[in-house]
Specification:
The complex is a heterodimer of chains A (421) and B (225).
Chain A (H helix, E strand, L loop, with lengths): L1 H39 L5 H19 L1 H10 L8 H25 L5 H17 L6 H34 L4 H28 L9 H23 L6 H6 L3 H42 L14 H29 L5 H20 L6 H14 L6 E2 L1 H32 L1
Helix pairs in contact in A: 1-2, 1-4, 1-10, 1-11, 2-10, 2-11, 3-10, 4-5, 4-10, 4-14, 5-10, 5-14, 6-12, 6-13, 7-8, 7-10, 7-12, 8-10, 10-11, 10-12, 12-13
Chain B lengths: L4 H4 L6 H16 L1 H9 L3 H27 L5 E2 L4 H27 L9 H22 L2 H6 L4 H35 L5 H32 L2
Helix pairs in contact in B: 2-4, 2-5, 2-6, 3-4, 3-6, 4-5, 5-9, 6-8, 6-9, 8-9
The chains are: A mainly alpha (421), B mainly alpha (225).
């Protein structure tokens, strides 16, 4: 226990720095993909996208980020085998490794996932630095499976949403009128779904305890509020006869553009909820050990301290503000194939899937879920052209990132052990 | 600058360029009317100007065609079969090709259209250009078709447009017979070689409408699955 007693505060400050570094990386990279679709379909300007991302990433991370954090903290490694000392150093090296890998990948333009990086890093230090038994190999299965299942699921949802839009709005005599009639329901769905996952799963650490029914009622209420807000905005949208001449659905798309503002919010929220854990999970584990002076059982399921989530949330926002906006700008300019009616389907499907995964504590890759959703719409004959060659590179990045995170974590673990040994 | 894989997931949609291409091809074909008017006025300077313009438009259409082909690699996942799209493109291109051929032949041989034949001939040419205009109109629905997922009302609307195109083409067939019959009556008073080439021109003008109709047929094929 001497390590924690001697260096407790130093380690805590270092860990916070590393956690912040990782959160910065999440904000700089991942958020851009989430927001780029809205900018690309011209539903939002870059400034608006960043503003939305800041507010809703923060809310998602702070309000609903707890469950996934728990998985990263306790679900992947067996804390009863790892001594408190090794746990602190290991999680620190994991944060540093994942953050570094993100930095390298960003510089090189590789499609890595922040989630994969941290999961790989945590497995790496535990398996090699401690012992093979320290890893909950049975818990890895669902995580790995989710990387295939979630894109598939979001693809399915996106396909369904796109088809429902076709049936209800596009393929009718009066698409514009039907758009105004049905789009509020999609808005309700967006608000309800995000609210439901949040109130039933995420609000514990804010001190709000609701029963199942209360949660559903509250979510319904929020959904209705969102819908009413949306209807107010929609009432101001008029038919643009001039634009309709060259493209019959121009006015309809204007209605969808409003919807997309809502789904962009939910997307940012979902991303914050799931991905803040990548930075905060290991940090929470470290804080738990240090605050109990290494005495408490490391595996104890303590609630994630609010200030740790806050640190992660702030880190994401700063990453977004200092670097992410550039990536959003590039992505936004280049995705012109996505009209608001498809972009909304992609975003809502991704947000639903990711928020759902967050609720059961599964760390998933937002980017890959989004890719799945886009493919789903493509299969529904909704996108002009998709480059399937890229799927290969995305799969390679899946495979490469895990060992890369692991190797870096092992390296840093060795260094930290020598320094504090 | 390394590109984000998420961006490169979106290929360049061929829909817009396809529409640009048919617009160019039709523009080239539409010059047939002023070309014939100039020929009938025996204003060879004007004929040459029209012919030059058509050559330029045909070349531009060619370039558009090439760029669509280049941007359609095998790994691209499209809402419609790639092969059908490429065939549609080549049929579109043939509209411009034939129109250009006609201009070249008329200028090269300084052809004379007998006065009594002129009004009928002009109606015939105009109707053939109408066919290519209708093909353009149908192709302009391609972006709406994409929006509608190549199905439903929008698809049946396009089918109606294609049927209209078929109607126009039938008109041109009928007109072609009339023009031929009128020429047959004049045949004996004209230099035989000129008559031969007049028949060729009549046939080629008909082919412009024919090829425009085939554009419609290919478009229907895109919707057929």
């Amino acid at each position: 226990m001497s390590l924690i007693a001697d260096y407790g505060s130093v380690l805590l400050i270092l860990a916070c720095t590393f956690g912040f570094f990782m959160a910065w990386g999440v904000g700089a990279n991942d958020v851009a993909n989430a927001m780029g679709t809205s900018v690309g379909s011209r539903a939002l300007t870059i400034k608006q996208a960043i503003l939305i991302a800041m507010v809703f990433e923060f809310c998602g991370a702070y309000l609903a980020g707890g469950e996934v954090t728990e998985t990263i903290k306790n679900g992947i490694v067996d804390a009863t085998i790892i001594t408190p000392d090794l746990m602190v150093l290991g999680m620190m090296s994991a944060l540093l490794a994942a953050g570094t890998w993100l930095l390298i990948a960003t510089a090189k333009g590789w499609p890595v996932s922040t989630t994969h990086s941290i999961v790989g890093a945590v497995i790496g230090f535990a398996a090699v630095g401690v012992s093979m038994d320290a890893v909950h190999w049975s818990a890895i299965g669902p995580i790995v499976a989710s990387w295939v299942v979630t894109p598939f699921l979001s693809g399915l949802v996106a396909f369904g949403l796109f088809m429902s839009v076709q049936k209800l709005i596009i393929d009718t005599d009066a698409p514009f009128r039907n758009a105004k009639r049905f789009v509020p329901f999609y808005m309700f769905l967006t608000g309800f779904m995000v609210a439901l996952m949040t109130v039933t799963k995420g609000l514990k650490h804010v001190g709000l305890h609701l029963s199942g029914n209360q949660g559903v009622l509250l979510a319904l209420g929020i959904g209705v509020l969102v819908m009413l807000l949306g209807m107010t905005i929609l009432s101001r949208i008029q038919v643009d006869a001039e634009a309709d001449k060259t493209f019959h659905y121009a006015s309809v798309e204007k209605v969808f553009a409003v919807l997309m503002v809502f789904t962009a919010c939910s997307m940012a929220f979902a991303h914050g909820a799931n991905d803040v854990a990548n930075a905060v999970g290991p940090l929470a584990a470290i804080v738990g050990v240090i605050e109990s002076q290494g005495a408490a059982a490391v595996g104890a399921k303590a609630a994630v301290p609010g200030w740790v989530l806050l640190l992660g949330a702030v880190g994401i926002v700063i990453g977004l503000a200092t670097y992410g906006y550039k990536v959003i700008a590039t992505i936004g300019k280049e995705i012109t194939e996505l009209t608001p009616s498809r972009g909304f389907a992609a975003e809502l499907a991704t947000a639903s899937t990711v928020v759902g995964a967050s609720a059961i504590g599964l760390p998933v890759s937002t980017t890959h879920t989004l890719v799945g959703a886009v493919l789903g719409i493509g299969i529904a004959r909704g996108i002009g052209a998709l480059n399937l060659g890229v799927i290969g590179s995305i799969f390679v990045s899946w495979i490469v990132t895990l060992p890369a995170g692991a190797i870096l974590a092992i390296l840093f673990f060795g260094i930290l052990r020598t320094v504090f040994g | 600058m390394p590109t984000n894989p998420f961006i490169s997931l979106f290929g360049r949609s061929p829909i817009g360029p396809m529409q640009q291409h048919i617009a160019k091809a039709h523009e080239c074909a539409s010059h047939l009317v002023p070309l014939f008017e100039a020929v009938m006025a025996q204003d060879w300077a004007r004929v040459e100007r029209e012919q030059q313009e058509m050559v330029r438009l045909e070349k531009e259409a060619d370039q558009l065609k090439k760029s669509v082909r280049i941007h359609l690699p095998k790994s691209l996942f499209l809402p419609v079969p790639r092969s059908d799209l490429l065939e549609l493109l080549s049929v579109q291109d043939k509209v411009a090709n034939r129109a250009k051929d006609i201009a070249g032949l008329m200028l090269g041989r300084q052809m004379v259209i007998p006065a009594t034949l002129q009004p009928l001939m002009l109606t015939y040419v105009q109707r053939c250009v109408d066919a290519s205009a209708q093909a353009l109109k149908a192709m302009n629905e391609l972006d709406e078709l994409l929006e509608a997922g190549f199905a439903g009302r929008e698809a049946s609307q396009v089918v109606t447009m294609v049927e209209e195109l078929e109607g126009i083409e039938e008109d041109t067939d009928r007109l072609q017979i009339e023009v031929r019959r009128a020429l047959f009556k004049l045949e004996s008073q004209l230099p035989p070689v000129d008559v031969m080439f007049l028949y060729t021109v009549i046939e080629w003008v008909g082919e412009v409408a024919d090829r425009a109709e085939r554009v419609g047929g290919r478009l229907e094929q895109l919707l057929a699955r």
